[in-house]
Design a protein that fits this description.
This protein is mostly beta strands and 71 residues long. The protein has one helix and four strands; from the N terminus they run ββββα.
């Protein structure tokens, strides 16, 4: 668990490993502060734990939190 930023917003990055149905999974999740006191979550789950990080890091710059609209 660590603090970072995504799209200029404060975010937490969590990492976990679990065994589900006989498979070993690696889970990475960003919890990103969003407008109006909300949070935006971006999650990656993979069975290839040793190769997950470069792929997930490439996705990070593309994560954008859009402002909420008031209707």
């Amino acid at each position: 668990l660590g603090q970072t930023t995504v799209d200029g917003r404060t975010a937490l990055l969590s990492y976990d490993q679990a065994s589900v149905g006989g498979r070993s999974l690696t889970v990475l999740q960003y919890a990103i502060a969003a407008p109006a006191g909300r949070a935006c979550y971006a999650t990656l789950v993979t069975e290839s734990g040793s190769t997950y990080e470069p792929a997930f890091s490439q996705l990070r710059p593309g994560i954008q939190v859009l402002p909420t609209s008031s209707h």
